[in-house]
Amino acid sequence: SGAGTASGGGDGGDTTLSFIPKNLNNPYITLELSGAKSAAEELGFTYAEAAPLDAGADSQIPFIQTEVQNGTKIIAVSPNDPDAVCPALEDARTGGAKIITFDSDSAAECRDLFINQVAVEDVAKGQLEQLYDQIGGTGDIAILSATAAAPNQNAWIEAMKAEIASNPDYEWNLVATVYGDDDDTKSFQEAQGLLQSYPNLKGIISPTTVGIAATARYLSTSEYKGKVALVGLGLPGQMKEYLTDGTVKEFALWDPSEVGYLTAYAGKALVDGTITGAEGDTFEAGKLGTYTVGANGLVLVGELLKFNAENIDQYDYITF
Amino acid sequence: MTSAPTATFTITEETRVRTGLSRLLLSRDGLFVAVLLLLVLVACLFVPRFASPVTTGYLLLNAMPALLIALPMTLIIITGEIDLSVASIVAMSTVTVGTLTTAGWPFGAAAAAAIVVGLIAGAVNGVLIAFVGLPSLAVTIGTLALFRGLALVVIGDRSVSASSYPDAAIELVGAKLGGTGIPVLAIAVAAAVAIFAIVLHATPFGRGLFAVGYSKEAARFVGIRVPRVKFVLYVLSGLMCGVVGVFWALSYSARSDSASGLELTVIAAVLLGGVSIFGGRGSILGAVTGVLVIAVVTYAMRLQRIPDVTLVIVTGALLIVSVVGPSIFAAVRRSLHVRRVQRTLPRPARAGAENAPHRRLT
Amino acid sequence: MKGLMKATRLRELPVAGALVLLIVVTTLINPRFLTPQSVKDLLLNATILMILAAGQALVLITRNVDLSVGSILGITGFLTGTLFATVPGIPIPVVFVIAMVVGALLGAVNGLLVTFAGVPALVITLGTLYIYRGINNAWAGGKEYFSGDRPVAFGDLSVDTVLGFPIITLIALAVIAVLAVSLGYTRRGRDLYAIGSDPDAAKLFGIPLARRVFSAFVLNGLLAGLAGVLYASRFSSVGATTGTGLELDVVAAAVVGGVAIFGGSGTVAGAAIGAVLLTTITSSLTALRVDKFWQQAVVGILILAAIVIDRVATLRAARTLRLSEARK
Amino acid sequence: MKPEQTSPPPDLDVLRLRSAVKTFGPVVALADGSIDLRAGEIHALVGENGAGKSTLVKILAGVHAPDAGEFFVAGAPVAFRSVADSKAAGISVIYQEPTLFPDLSVAENIFIGRQPRGRLGLIDRGAMRAAAAELFASLGVPIDPDRPAEGLSIADQQIIEIAKAISLDARVLVMDEPTAALSGAEVDRLFVVARRLRDQGAAILFISHRFDEVFDLTDRITVMRDGRYISTHETSRTDVPTIVRAMVGRDVDTLFPKEPARIGEPVLTVRGLTRAGVFADVDLDVRAGEIVGLAGLVGAGRTEVARAIFGIDPYDEGSVVFAGSALPQRAPDAAIRAGIGFVPEDRRKQGLVMDLSVARNITLTLRRSLSRFGIIDAAAERRTADDWAGRLQVKAGSPRIAVSTLSGGNQQKIVLAKWLANDPKLLIVDEPTRGIDVGTKSEVHRLLSDLAGRGIAILMISSELPEVLGMSDRVLVMCEGRISGRFDRAEATSENVMHAATAVEGARA
Ligand SMILES: Nc1ncnc2c1ncn2[C@@H]1O[C@H](COP(=O)(O)OP(=O)(O)OP(=O)(O)O)[C@@H](O)[C@H]1O
Ligand SMILES: Nc1ncnc2c1ncn2[C@@H]1O[C@H](COP(=O)(O)OP(=O)(O)OP(=O)(O)O)[C@@H](O)[C@H]1O
Ligand SMILES: [Mg+2]
Ligand SMILES: [Mg+2]
Q1: Which of A294, C94, C215, D281 has the most CB atoms lying inside 10 A of its own CB?
Q2: In a domain, B114, yes or no
Q3: Cα D117 to Cα C208, D111, D120, D121, distances in angstroms
Q4: Whole-model pTM over 0.90
Q5: Is the ipTM here above 0.90?
Q6: How far away, in angstroms, is D411 Cα from ligand 2 center?
Q7: Directed axis angle between helix D125-139 and helix D184-199, to 10°?
Q8: What residues in B contact A50, CB-CB < 8 Å?
Q9: Residue B117's domain spans which residues?
Q10: Could B319 and C117 be called an inter-chain contact, meaning their C-beta atoms sit closer than 8 Å?
């Protein structure tokens, strides 16, 4: 990759694990990356992270290009847009890099592996079950998501819709899907708008940590506290107060640091040839044990964790 | 005619008129270009792998949207106006080309439609600013929201990937000039830069822009049709944004949030390039250099894996230094000059004691 | 004649009218728009933008602009979170004071650069927009402070109401009232208008231009600091990106509220009403169940409509003035 | 030196500036500025354009800090660091260019910074309005204190400046060409006020290019030339030729040297031009080689007619035919292309792009003719600019210097140069010698006369009767937006013209 390698430091080359999350400075992502970092240390790899400050669709591309030029061999990325990153990822693969997507996926042909927290269907079903436990199978419900084009959120929402349509217990009326753009203020106001526009709303599903926290904050400060159920994916450390004050009864997530951890190990396995990304390949992932690559290069980290007032103290390490 | 005595005193060595090349080299633009070259040199020497054709390719392609929009933006700012809606127009254009292509339009037709959309958006700005006479800052804050909103209306939560377009188009965007790494498209961009530079600096139209920037009323009195000039500029801006939108769709993807925030990047670069926000002063060379300085600094810092936080701070600091610097420089020069004058001019005879009466008038 | 002059000065009238119309129409279609909870939400939503718009009005009136307010709010918001989390038992008023002082300092940096270096505010504050945001990012990193980290009493400022008004809204209203009076009825306040109306003349006339403009920036920073604290009270988390992109909303609110972008006219009350209008339109579109994808476009149209109406009103007033003088 | 020159005993001086120096970059605006003002006198400061009068005024006002020199107020040495300092010392200044705040009301413009305060220290708007109304009443002008300053005529702006200065009760009042925009009646009122202030013990510095005013009003006259103090004279013991010689350092030729020219076919024909509320039924013709004077009181609508003809403003009815074909409305570019030049009355805002260089201003109207294949020929541009600046003897450091740094008279020359370079068939000049010194004035007149001699038609708007009478082949008089009198050169006398100018009942007195 061009001139200048002589004067280079230790970056690039075969032992660098480069992580490009959606953006930096977001608690969930910090948590993910902390797992990645400790795994890299265990493996003796150089850990590098780089990402834009905003989660714009195109803003990750220059970072991928930089990795291409640096000759990095393992690039892990959570695309903000499944397609926009593809040309850059193609360049990287042409240059011999292994590409892993984690947290959110790109188009399947642009990467070698996708490390997903939990199977899409399980995430969707888990949240619906929690809602069913609280409000039963009837009434108006709504979804408050992240950005309109967020790939993982959209996948979960699709799966939820399919499940509602197919499961006879679920006779809910899904009145609206709104987007808080993973922005605290915006999510807050979207939550408020939902309650105002749909007076009979019984439950809200917010499959994003920013959205569920903002919605919980709004509910806890309004007359709807305890009357409207809220489920979704939330950070235990952040949501604890709402479990305590009764705004929220139960929510779900996984351990984000495990996602980063597993991604790092998968990267090593790819680069040392243990796996190619084909279905059925297996690899060791340190403290997490052995994993098998599924169809379409998909690797699942684990199960959905459900948090409630009883078990929250066990899990509130999942924060900072 | 009578030979009137001259009333202007000149200190000759300072009014000596500098000509041609030496003037350019000593001008702000000249210095700024030198700064750019120095930056490139430093980056080549100290940033590993910077000196490579890969850099030229990525760097130039990444800078292209800002560069193309900076051209009409420079003209607009020189007339004392501003266009904050550029990024939203790019998004509309991107979304248009994406949606129409997926709807089965041939790519060429979709791209043309996208450019027309940009043109119309520019015309909307132009009508409101030039003919209705509204302040451009306010209008384009409004259309910033409106155009982005319309993009959202058209494409909603979908996105159209670059792979939906014909391979020929995609290849053209990626094509490089031999081993230099310079994108083929750079030729077109260079041509655009040259055209804008000529229009601004060497045509009657461009001359008029400076006059409009300094004083709209005085410009009117020399027969410049100020509203029409402004309208043309906004349409031009819309047109460029339309073109950039097509480029954007081909390089990245078409989404409602494409190019968001690009307006501030472009304006920052143009201002960094010495174009006066008050109008009347600036050059295409300066603006282009401004875009490239930011592009080079960004690229070099990212190669070094210096976090974007630093980059943001550096961009802001550059912007401030670029405007505060000259003004401090001028102040220092002024005070030096005053001191020199005080030394060269004969001191007036000290007013003697008889001239300093102690009595006060009430 | 008197009435005519009043009408030309009251640029905020059309906005206030539009606001009332919007509320009436929305309520007719969706009566729940005016339930106590909804009213409270409307006020809360508007509060922070109101304060920022009022502060921005001060700066705009002097023919300057401050684009860094979103970043200042971000820093002071995160500062508030940090103070509560790291200094247990810190009294709430102390936090207010510290955040406002920090805001004022950041505003002072803008003011210093603008006045003493004599460079255009748009460029300077675009620069500090980046720098302050960068500082916030560097400081906060991935850290965020949640409402659970803050005392309940602090959060309650944006929950509890007095006479139906949330406490933070009352704080904002009080601040705006004080500002409105100082701007309209004190010599320093009027100086700001003179400066914005013609800076060169102000200098010739002996108005301490630099000092006044500087103080406008400091005040605006202070208000952004206040907004940062209130933000932390109202919303669930404060972190590196808090307040990003707010600057254009703030300027839009002031402009919609009749503050001339080129200085010299407009009022803080108008700016505050503009802020209420902008936030209400979002709520009312939701209440009217307007397609979410249309909302942003409608906001854009509203901004344009506001400035067109303002322009038409000004033109008509000028025309009336001309004809009435001709008749004299 | 002259025998009538006096050197006053220093202890009487309320203000004394000695050997002040002020430079702007390479330009030395003031090389040796000196002035003594006594309590209870009106002191004239005269000098050619660019002599440094306004610069001296700005030093007194604290706007500029002198590079060198000594400055005493009431005997004590002072160094003003700002305008506020000079105000505090009791110096009040009316600048050459009105400095009003367009968005503020007239009353507030007068009292800005020292508005009357009522309860709680808040501004008492009612009291402020009343005080302003009272001031206007004492000045005898009907200005509404509540209207915004925006849109006021230059004359009214000047009156407000005067009211503002008077209301300050200053012990030193400096007026830099306050009468340049005023009509006879307004000037008279101003003089009454000035004398009253003098009698109350104020020292007044009065700058004007009009000798009748200077001799009518002042007690002493100080002459400046080339940035230097030349001499001071007792007004009662000197005369115009002496002062003029001191000013220009030589004898000046006769003013108004209008040479008879061969008058040709009508170039401009205006019929029934009407704009509601501004002017009505204006018919006028200007023939090749003819100078048509357009006289009238300030506010009669002359400027408006000229602007409408040139295409700046719209009109409701009527027609403008130029060189045989109709001129479109609201199209100055068409007017320029057809061969009309327009020297507007407000040279800073309309006549020039102040921040642009001398050269660029001159060639602004030539943008198209100087370009080949759409590209401007830079060399030709430079030549043209140098040529015209030279022909009109513009005094400027370099052609690349901004016109804002030139003195008023030199600026006016640039405006003229700009149009002459465009080779016009008709030149409309609005107050062509406003604020211009005697020497330059006669040059401008000679220039206009020359142009007429070369067959150019000239429509000259002027508020100076001697200028109108001296220069015009025909005189049209406007009053209240209508043409109220038409006179040939022979029948145009001051009585006739003044009568027509005030003919319509209720004309602004
Ligand atoms: N201060 C004013 N107050 C009211 N009306 C004014 C004022 N100034 C101008 N006008 C209106 O505008 C018309 C034209 O004024 P304008 O100043 O153009 O006249 P003018 O004859 O060119 O005077 P000037 O000698 O100042 O050039 C007047 O008839 C009057 O109706
Ligand atoms: N800010 C400035 N920068 C550069 N040169 C200046 C500046 N102000 C004045 N000058 C120059 O100083 C000289 C004196 O100007 P000044 O305005 O004092 O003349 P004046 O006597 O008032 O003339 P007029 O009668 O035309 O008003 C002129 O040559 C002018 O060009
Ligand atoms: Mg002068
Ligand atoms: Mg006039």
Answers
A1: C215
A2: yes
A3: 20, 11, 8, 5
A4: no
A5: no
A6: 10
A7: 110
A8: 302, 305, 307-308
A9: 28-341
A10: no
